[in-house]
Amino acid sequence: MQIPGGRDGRRMLAVTFVDKAGSGLWGATAALYFTYVAGLRTAEIGLLLGVSGAVGIAGPPLGGLLADRVPLRPLLAAVQALRAVASLALLTTTDLRLLLAVTAVGSLGDRASSVLTKLYAARVAGPDRSRYQAVNRTVSNLGWAVGGLVAAAALSTGTTAVYRWLLTGDALSFAAIALLTLRCGEPPSPSRVVAAGGTGAGAGAPGAGEETPAPGPNPWRDRRFLAYTATDAVLFLDDSVFNVGLALWAVTATTLPHEAVPLLLVLNNVLVVCFQVPFARFGKTSAKARSTLFPLAVAFLAGGAALAASATDNRWLAATALTLAAVAFTVAEMLHATVSWELSVALAPPTAQGAYLGVHGLAQAAQRSAGPLVVTGAIAAGPLGWLGLGTGLAAMCLAQRRLTRDDDETAMSVPRITVSEH
């Protein structure tokens, strides 16, 4: 299979795999590390994760803003190195105040790295960015799976030392991807222009040949883009449905055996690995991405209805409904990932692409903070809560389609220029 972006595209996929494999080592064991190694109480762990998550919200807009002003490759490598240092620093202390500072820095780097990696992919893949995103998500899921399996195997030893080794492995993965990133080329950037290019300046003109940032629009003053980001934050709720809602609902409101619950998450992972790349065709152009918001609405509505139907005393009916819900929300996840990637890039003016994608990164950050509350609220409301959530998500899809529509139904509000054309 040909990878968009050529050699640099392939290298960035390797970065993604190593990054997610390392994150899989730590993500599955972070709470256990803080409990058994750092000796923190449950309330202290909650404070630690809450504060770091709040600080991390600043990562996407800050990273995107910098990406429009400095070369992207060294900036991304520096952020990855910062993540490595933060992970290693966790090994040096058990003091809550120091852990708060270190995890906050790590969260800031983690969120900034996410949007910078997306920006690099958008620039290097150009018009094939939708297909590249699909391949990238597949590789990401494989990385998470490998990291999680290694962590599970390591924890079977039953010693506390293994937590330190897993954290060390996570830090080394960040160091490795920083070095891999430096081997990639600098992608073309519409926001950085040759100072004397095309102006007719003489060869000896001051600053000739130097790259300087070109002024671009401010995303914080673009009400349409801010509204789009707000709607996307809602549509990212499929993440909380899988990470929080599905398991809690299955064990508290249905007759499904507890040991069968992890199989629903495995099903999600398998479906993403198998079908995310074929689903890329739904986001090949902005028009197709907008049209895909209709089937996305249907998938959300079907998922909510299936979860509501799973609240039955019949074990087989509950299992069938939960499986259908897992499939529906996985389809929604894949469709939304494709649509969100294409529209967020298409709506960003080329001269301020980094700043715009940085603001769009707030959608996922906000969902991670508010999503668990929304999902647990749906659980508390019972079957009607899931029906309401599914209906609300479907309505948001239709609202987003209208929001991103142009008067002539043929073009977005910004010129259809891809970074590969610069």
Descriptors:
422 residues, mainly alpha, two-stranded antiparallel sheet, 2 strands, 1% strand
Please provide the ordered H/E string of secondary-structure elements. HHHHHHHHEEHHHHHHH
Structural class comes to mainly alpha
Mean pLDDT: 83
Label the overall shape.
Answer: globular
- The number of helical segments is 15
What portion of the residues fall into strands of 2 or more residues? under 5%
Q: How many DSSP-defined strands?
A: 2
Percentage of residues in helical conformation: over 70%
The residue ranges in which pLDDT falls below 50 over 5 or more consecutive positions are: 193-210, 407-422
Radius of gyration: 22 Å
Strand order of the largest sheet: 1-2
- CA-CA gap between termini: 26 Å
The main sheet comes to: 2 strands, antiparallel
